[in-house]
Amino acid sequence: MAECAKSLDAEVIVNVQGDEPFISPAAIDAVVATFLTPVTQPHAVANAYAEIECPAAVIDHNVAKVALRADGTALTFSRQPIPYPKGAHTAYLRQLGLYAFTPDALRAFAGLRPGHVENVEGIEMPRFVEHSHPVAMVRVQNVGIAIDTPADLERAGAMALG
């Protein structure tokens, strides 16, 4: 993506991953809006998330989860349930394959070495967090499922057919 973006003249570059066919235009607009709205701490990268509604998705290692800092930026990402609910109920958040970057942030991402968490979890966004770059997280409506397995593809087909 960084290589393709070199030829773009854009203030914000959006990446909708191919395994997220149900991402809504409203979700894309919400992520892009983080770059267009005056905020106290502007961010160079934003990532969408939604609350996990299906209990099975909480323990599904194909579903990337995110935990947030108090300021709404990403604290950590994992394929395991985070945070662990030791004696308390918690909402689980699914990290979506919808990212937006400033051109400088995308170049920085391409120049950073993947860290331990990124390598172990197989999720790209920890690269920023591991190198102390904040990732603004944008809550969007649950947008269906990501297609990571043949079973997901079957469910997606059923959803598309109504």
What descriptors fit this protein?
Spore Coat Polysaccharide Biosynthesis Protein SpsA, Chain A; alpha+beta; 162 residues; 33% helix
Helix content: 25-40%
Write down the secondary-structure element order. HEHEHEEEHHHEH
Strand content: 15-25%
CATH topology (fold) name: Spore Coat Polysaccharide Biosynthesis Protein SpsA, Chain A
Rg, Cα atoms, Å: 16 Å
The level-1 CATH class: Alpha Beta
By secondary-structure content and strand pairing, the structural class works out as alpha+beta
Q: How many strands in all?
A: 6
State the fourth-level CATH superfamily.
Spore Coat Polysaccharide Biosynthesis Protein SpsA, Chain A
Q: Any idea what the shape is?
A: globular
The number of distinct structural domains comes to 1
CA-to-CA gap between the ends? 33 Å
Largest sheet: 6 strands, mixed
Helix segment tally: 7
Reported CATH architecture: Alpha-Beta Complex
Uncertain residue ranges: none
Give a written overview of the molecule:
- This protein is α+β, with helices and mostly antiparallel strands.
- The chain is built from seven helices and six strands, in the order αβαβαβββαααβα.
- The chain has helices at residues 2-5, 25-36, 55-59, 103-111, 116-121, 126-130, 150-161; strands at residues 13-16, 45-51, 65-68, 74-78, 93-101, 136-139.
- Strands 1, 2, 3, 4, 5 and 6 form a six-stranded mixed beta sheet that branches.
Please give the structural blueprint:
Layout: H1 2-5, E1 13-16, H2 25-36, E2 45-51, H3 55-59, E3 65-68, E4 74-78, E5 93-101, H4 103-111, H5 116-121, H6 126-130, E6 136-139, H7 150-161
Parallel strand pairs: 2-6
Antiparallel strand pairs: 1-5, 2-5, 3-4, 3-5
